[in-house]
Specification:
Helix content: over 70%
Distance between the termini: 11 Å
Largest sheet: 2 strands, antiparallel
Strand content: 5-15%
Number of helices: 9
Structural class: mainly alpha
C-alpha cells in the first residue's frame, strides 16, 4: 500500500481508532464499566431475539454486576439460541462498522438495536434492578441518538460497534478460551450429553465471529 493509501486508510478509520484507543486505555476503569455492562445486556438480547425468532419463548433475561448474565428460554432452536450471545454480539459490532459507509442503513441498525434492547428489557427483565434501568435507558439513549441526527447516529454507532467487537474479543480470551465448559458453549454441549464438545463449539464460535469482524473491516478497506 502506498503512503497516500495508508494515510487514506488511517483517516477513514480515525474515529474507530480513537474509540478503540480510549476503550483499551480505560478498559478497567469506572468510565468503561457501564458500557461493558451494556454489552452484556446486548449479549442477552441476542439470545432472546434468537429464541423468539426460532419460535421459542423467553422466560427471563438478567445481567449481573459482575458482567455475567443469563437468558432463560423455552422452545426454539437451542443451538442457534446458544450461539446468538457471543456470535450475535460480534455480528452486530461488525454490522455497525460495515454500515459506516451506508449511513442510512447504519442509522436503521442502530435504531433497531436501541429499540430491541429497550423493549426486550421491559418485557423480560424484572423491573427495579440495575439491569432493567440499564437496558431500558441505554436502549432509549441509542434510539434517540439514531433519531436525532446523522452525526449523533454515527457517533453512537461507531462507539457501540467498537465496544461490541472489543467485548467479544474480551469474551473470547476469557470465557471461551479459559473455561468454555462454563459458558453458553458448555450449556449447549451438556444439552447434547457430550460436555467435551464445549471446546470445539467455543472454537467454532470464535472463528465465525472473527471472520465476520474481519469481513466487515476488509469491505471498508476495499473502498479506499
Amino acid at each position: 500500500m502506498t503512503i497516500k493509501g495508508s494515510a487514506a486508510l488511517i483517516w477513514r478509520f480515525r474515529y474507530y481508532l480513537l474509540c478503540t484507543m480510549a476503550a483499551v486505555v480505560f478498559w478497567d476503569t469506572p468510565f468503561i464499566y457501564p458500557f461493558k455492562l451494556f454489552m452484556v445486556v446486548v449479549h442477552e438480547v441476542c439470545h432472546a431475539a434468537a429464541a423468539l425468532g426460532t419460535g421459542g419463548e423467553v422466560l427471563e433475561m438478567k445481567t449481573e454486576w459482575d458482567e455475567s448474565g443469563h437468558t432463560l428460554t423455552r422452545g426454539g432452536i437451542f443451538p442457534l439460541i446458544s450461539a446468538a450471545g457471543y456470535v450475535g454480539s460480534a455480528a452486530l459490532g461488525a454490522l455497525l462498522i460495515y454500515t459506516g459507509k451506508f449511513q442510512r442503513a447504519q442509522r436503521l441498525v442502530l435504531a433497531a438495536i436501541g429499540l430491541a434492547t429497550m423493549l426486550m428489557t421491559m418485557w423480560f427483565t424484572p423491573f427495579g434492578l440495575m439491569d432493567s434501568y440499564l437496558g431500558i435507558f441505554g436502549g432509549l439513549v441509542i434510539l434517540c441518538m439514531a433519531i436525532k441526527s446523522q452525526r449523533a447516529s454515527t457517533m453512537a454507532a461507531t462507539w457501540l460497534g467498537i465496544m461490541l467487537c472489543l467485548y467479544s474479543l474480551h469474551d473470547f480470551r476469557t470465557d471461551l478460551w479459559q473455561y468454555p465448559e462454563m459458558t453458553d458453549a458448555g450449556i449447549l454441549a451438556r444439552s447434547w450429553g457430550v460436555p467435551i464438545l464445549a471446546y470445539p463449539i467455543a472454537l467454532t464460535w470464535v472463528v465465525l465471529s472473527l471472520g465476520l469482524m474481519h469481513r466487515a473491516l476488509r469491505a471498508i478497506v476495499k473502498d479506499i
